[in-house]
Each structure stands twice: as C-alpha cells, then as structure tokens.
Amino acid sequence: MFILDKTLHFPSVHLANAEGVVAYGGDLSPDRLILAYKSGIFPWYSEGYPITWYSPEPRMVLFPKDIKISKSMRQFIKKNPFEIRFNSAFAEVIRNCKTAKRNGEAGTWITNAMEEAYNQLHKQGWAKSVEVYQNSVLVGGLYGIDLGTVFCGESMFSKVSNASKVAFIWLVNYLADKDYKLIDCQVYNQHLDSLGAVEIPRTEFLSYL
Cα–Cα–Cα angle for 64, 66, 160, nearest 5°? Predict the structure, then answer.
C-alpha cells in the first residue's frame, strides 16, 4: 500500500486495491485535494485514522440529461415550497452535513480537518454549495467540488422532507444548462440510483475528467 509524504503526487488509480484505496497519508492542502479530484481520487476517512484516498471501481455518476424525477416530485417542486440559493452559505452547509444524523451510521466522515480544508477550497472557488431555505431557515443543501465540466458531489443534508432531493435536482438542472458532462456520485447509493445515477467503469470516468 502506498503511503504519501509531502511530495505532491498520487500513484496510479489502477493500483488501487479491491476496496478502491489508492493511498494513505499526505495532507488536505488545497493543491493536493484538487490534484486528487482531477485524478479521480477523493479522501474518505474517520477522525483518528490516517487520511485515506479512494478511487472506486466502478464509479457512480449521473449524466445530467438522465435525471429521473417522479411525477409526485415534479408536482411538489411546482408548488415552490423552498427558496433555492447557490453558493451563498457554504460553511453552514458543510457544518450541517457534518452534524446530520444518518441512519445506520455512527459519527461522521467529515472530520474537523476536512471541514477546514473544504472551507478553504470554497474560498478559492473550487468548492460550491446549494442551499435550500424554508421561511428563511436553512433546511437542506449539498456541496461538492466544481472542476468546470464535472461536478464532484460530496455530501448533502435535509432537515425537512425532500429538501436535499430538491437541492440535487436544482443542481442537475443548473449543470445541464451549462453543459457539464456529469456529476460524480463516487459510490453506489440507492437514493441516487432512484434519481438516475449509474455505475460506469473507472477508466470511462477518467476519460471524462
């Protein structure tokens, strides 16, 4: 297994193990994080453990034109139940994603260092968020890394029913209008599968990057 040092370098993703682990260690500096995303790699680890870098095979993605929106959801959206804002409260979104209670999960993978690092990426223009408000209260949202033609989704949260789903649908439509190639969803997720996300070979994903 590859252990990273201070050198700004990653081994080939094709050397990842069966779980998709490419390497351990290194740091969460903006330069390393952006190199990782541009190489098809992302960090995912828990507090107290070494930084772990992944490039899963296959890769879960969503092509904007393939978004699936149920009839009931379309009707729900037409009622304009929320106010949607873009990239206006990034720090609040990542903090809510960090503290959200999730079924079957103990703790969070968004460590203090991760939160600080992605807030720095936001200040540099790489990390962006979608916010969902109800009665002027933030009730849902998501964030990710914007590579220009590929958006790498990271996490979402919802405090009221459908808030995160509406944020995701809004993002897909926004990216489709700007001719983005795909949204990186990283690994299989039943919720995203229901919205049209699919698994593709890692080599295909890398070709889009």
Answer: 75
- Alpha-helical (H) ranges within the chain are 30-38, 71-78, 90-99, 112-123, 163-177, 190-194, 202-208
Q: Is 20 left (phi over 0), alpha (psi -120 to 50) or beta?
A: left
Distances (CA, A) of 73 to 77, 135, 166: 6, 20, 9
Which residues of the chain are in CATH 3.30.70.3550 domains? 2-57
CATH 3.40.630.70 fits 60-200, yes or no: yes
What angle, 0 to 180 degrees and rounded to 10, lies between the N-to-C axes of helices 163-177 and 71-78?
A: 90
> What is the band of 107 on the pLDDT scale with cuts at 50, 70, 90?
very low
pLDDT band at 106 (very low <50, low <70, confident <90, very high): very low
Say how far residue 74 (Cα) sits from the centre of its chain: 24
Six-digit token pair at 84? 């949607």
- Which CATH number is 2-57 given? 3.30.70.3550
Q: What is the pLDDT of residues 193-207, one digit of tens each?
A: 999 999 999 999 999
Where in the sequence of the chain do the CATH 3.40.630.70 domains occur?
Answer: 60-200
